[in-house]
Every structure is written in structure tokens, then in C-alpha cells.
Amino acid sequence: MKRTRRFRLPQGPRGTLLLVGTAVGVGIASLAGFAVGAKWFTEERATTRKTLLSAENAIKQINGLQPTREKLERDLKSVVNRTFGPDQAATDSALRSRLNRIGEEIRLSDLRVATGTPTMRTSPAKRLLPKVKDQRYYDDFVEVPATITGSGTLEQALRLVHRIEVEPWLKRIDSVGLEEEKDGERIKVTVKLTTIFLPDQKGTADLRPSDADLERFERLRPIVLANPFRVPTPPKPQPTAVAADPAPPPPPAPAGFPYDQWLVTSLVSGPLGPEAWLRNATTGETRVVTPGQAIGEAIFVDFDVDIAQFRQGDASFRVQIGRPLTDRQS
């Protein structure tokens, strides 16, 4: 016959404390067992938590870049709107048509337009981003070269360059050539340029210059008026100068008066007008004559700085200060 042992919990405060302590111990043991089972304190959990935090930070950064992405999309759209089309065929056709229309509006003669081989430009991101199966993912834009040539006046040639410059579609003017024709009255102009398109991106903007942009051509008006290409007109031949008849020789000093002894010593402006002072080198005699007075048959007329002017009969002669009246000049 089996005996059953019965335990009786202590009654009163001691029994209550024992019951609470037992419950707390069982709870702590259960929590520890769950923590071990859930790997709270293992390296694997720490790694997982770190990965989770990194993912959360990445999501926050992406959300913060949303305004920047929207701005980039707007900027990209503004670039696309300044292109002719989404592919080579559309761009080539529109570019040829536009250049021909510009040349016809300016009325260039011998107008020719040609386009070249397109060149694909790859995004620099290809060196940074992971490899992808479709390499076209890195295609950034395509360059399309073109050349327009024509002949006209200097104003027409400069209008062509100005018109291409103010056209709103994207382009780069690579070179401008101006070649003189017909002594500079006509100019052969050649403009080489490059435009672009973004594959599969089609714009919607109206690619026409404004009236204000077209009126800016007037800043080139001084060059048009000067026309540095014009060959100067050769000067008209001057008529051959006819040698003038030599002046008649001064009249010789008549015999009978000692003109060779009388020297012009001074020329002054006196109270009565010009005066010529003379002195006889042999006798020392002096005389002063005014216009209309004579010495011998030589009548004093006037003087010019240091030269006295005389008249004798129908002829005139001059004598320099310090010279005798026989040393005459016509």
C-alpha cells in the first residue's frame, strides 16, 4: 500500500513571499531561455541589426534626394526640348531643313547644306556604376555635325553666323570661314557646327529665335559698313605737272649808280611802316627808305623777315640783309 506525502505551504506573509519568488524565478528562467533561442546576444543578431539600420538610413537618404531628382528631371526635360528629335533620322532631317530655311531667308546664293557621321557620347557613369547587360544604358547623347556654305554680301555672311548663334536649339559652332570674292564685294561664308539628340527623348518646345535676338544683329553694323574685305579703289592718276616758265632773271643793276657799294643792313617796322636801312660800304653813308622811296632806280616795296623787296622798272628782285644791292634774287 503506497503512502502519499502532502506538503502544506506556509500560511501568512512567509507563504506569499515564497509564492512570488517562485513565480519571478520561473519568469526569469523563461525569458533567458527565449533570449537564447532568439539569439539576442549572438553575433548573427548584431550583424542583422546593423544591416537593418543601414537599409533604413539608405531609405532616408533616397527620400531626401527626391527633390533633387525632380529638379534633375526638369533640367533634363529642358535639354530635350532644345533638340530636334529622339533619333538620328529625325535630327538629321530637321537640322538640314532648318539650315536650308535660314540660308534661303538670308538669300544666300550657291547655298549648300551637309551633315556628317553621328558620334555617340557615353556617360562618365559607366566607370562608376555596376556592369549591365545592355550597354546602351550608358549612352548619354549623340553628336550630329553639319556644314552650311553660301555666297553673298558681307552683311548676308554675318547674318548667317548671327542667325545660327541665336537659334534656340542646342549647337556648338565649331568654325566660321569668310573668303573674299570679287574684290571683297561678295563673301563666301562657311559655318561648321554640331548639334545633339538624346536617344528616345523627344522635345516639345518651339525652336524659333525671338525678335529681340534677331535685332541684336545691329551690333555688327559697324563691321558691315567698314567691310575690311573690300579692296580699296586705286587712286585716279594725277595730271602731269607742267613745268612753269622759269621766273625772269632779276634786272641787272644799271651803270652809273654804285649799287655794289650799298648794303642792306637792317629791316624794321617804323612809325611810318616798313623801313630798309642801307649803308655805303665805301663811304660809310647811310640811308633809310620806306615803301615807294628809291635808292638809285631801285624802289623799296616791303620786306619779309630778313629779305628786302625792290622794284626796278617792270621787274622785281629781293636782297637779303648783309648783301649788296647787286646780289639780287628773282
Explain what this protein looks like in three dimensions:
The chain has 330 residues and is α+β, with helices and mostly antiparallel strands. 32% of the residues lie in helices and 27% in strands. It is built from seven helices and twelve strands. The strands form three sheets. Strands 1, 2, 3, 4 and 5 form a five-stranded antiparallel beta sheet that branches. Strand 9 (294-295) and strand 10 (298-304) form a beta hairpin. Helix 4 (88-106) packs antiparallel against helix 5. It is elongated, with a radius of gyration of 56 Å. The model has no long low-confidence stretch (mean pLDDT 81).
Short description:
The chain is α+β, with helices and mostly antiparallel strands and 330 residues long.
Query: How much β-strand is present in the residues?
Result: 25-35%
| Proportion of helical residues | 25-40%
Given the structure, what is the number of helices?
7
Radius of gyration over all CA atoms, rounded: 56 Å
- Spatial gap, N to C terminus: 186 Å
Key words describing this protein structure:
elongated, 32% helix, single chain, 7 helices, 27% strand, alpha+beta, 4-stranded antiparallel sheet, 330 residues, 5-stranded antiparallel sheet
Topology:
Elements: H1 13-38, H2 43-64, H3 66-80, H4 88-106, E1 109-115, E2 119-122, E3 139-152, H5 154-166, E4 172-181, E5 186-197, H6 211-215, H7 221-226, E6 262-270, E7 273-280, E8 286-289, E9 294-295, E10 298-304, E11 307-312, E12 315-320
Antiparallel strand pairs: 1-3, 2-3, 3-5, 4-5, 6-7, 7-8, 9-10, 10-11, 11-12
Helix pairs in contact: 4-5
